[in-house]
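Record now logged underneath.
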Amino acid sequence: MTSPFEALLPSTERALLHRVAVAQAEGRAPSLVGAVARDGRTVWSGSRSCVDGHAPDADTQYRIGSITKVFTAVLVMRLRDEGLLDLGDPLEKHLPGTGAGEVTVAQLLGHSAGLAAESPAPWWERTPGTERPELGDVLGEKPLLHPSGRGHHYSNPGYTLLGSLVEAVRGVSWEEALRTEILEPLGLTRTTARPVAPHAGGWAVHPWADVMLPEPAQDLGLMAPAGQLWSTASDLCRFAVFLAEGDERVLSAASVAEMRTPAVPPAAGDWEGGYGLGLQLLRRDGRTYVGHTGSLPGFVACLWVSVEDGVAAVALANATSGPMVAGTAADLVRIVAEAEPRIPEPWRPLSAVDQELLALTGPWYWGTSAYGLRLEADGGVALEPMRGAGRRARFRALPDGGWVGLNGYYAGETLRVVRREDGSVSHLDLGSFVFTREPYEPGDAVPGGVDEEGWRGL
């Protein structure tokens, strides 16, 4: 996607800087960086710091914590797309002997495997990874706390297993796979497993006084796939564009869209949140965000993308707690989307059209419910109720004829044209539902037949 704008309006930039300044001041963060990408490119970055004349920029590294999980999930999805594993495979098939082998790859990606949220003590984020040299040290004696596949329960050890799965199937270290399969193709030169200057130092800010304490930066060892990485606002904006559009060098747009789809129902009462395959989902102020939050001692981070608006934002701070970066990043997206709403592409007629396909457009009836079939620019079709509520869906053309549903009730269902012996169109079949040109027309292929006396009054 390309934007007709080279830069944001000055009023928008000031609103973004104001939001970052408020987050740094009210969150009592030593420093805070924000950045925004729109329609495929970074269009703004800004920062605030407690040290005059020493503000970080979009190239300053911060530790990003659990945003690392998104990178790990992409590596797993690549293995699936290459046919090296299936998301429904039990872990045991590829990584035997863990004690959690019955859980599936998809359950691990979506945090529905039922694993514990954390590894056994001592707290893994503040201790060296060498204290957990084996997977058994990460999982503990009782790795499963909940029934697998029944609900969402966030698990850091689950992503340790996924990192080890990548190593077992790929035959290289998680870090090597990350570098060659994601970082280098996307040009994320400032995303690394260990800090590379210029980088921020991690700090704890006293809850009741304006004083600070440095936080240790541990190498997480086997837990690295759950939270090891350091990155910059600039790199993460570039990664956010990938999460919106895909990149054939790394992962297709269809597979990235699959990652953005809810994997399990949200927890009771949490109807504004959710989780896909490695991506957090948020519904806020009528807008859907996908991305991830992250934290490790001394740092908090957030990346959100609004695919519909074509806007992404990143917020990074070097404080253990205080700055509400998730809300800040969401607000940066909202500010741009509302101040400078996306301008739609011009309408253009099709360059060519199949006349037989064109003849299928227009009204169809499922029973007495009227639907309209519309031809779309990509060769697919859309089927929508002509009035009132009803099931609507878009369909992608199949190579051997017909279409497959892309969304809603009919996702994955096949729509096909059924012809009579003379070649004329009889009806549309959508997952066994019959759509005819007229409602209950005698002689049409209406399941159960049509009353011979036809329509009548009272």
Notes: The chain has a mean pLDDT of 94. Residues 313 and 333 are 6 Å apart (CA to CA).
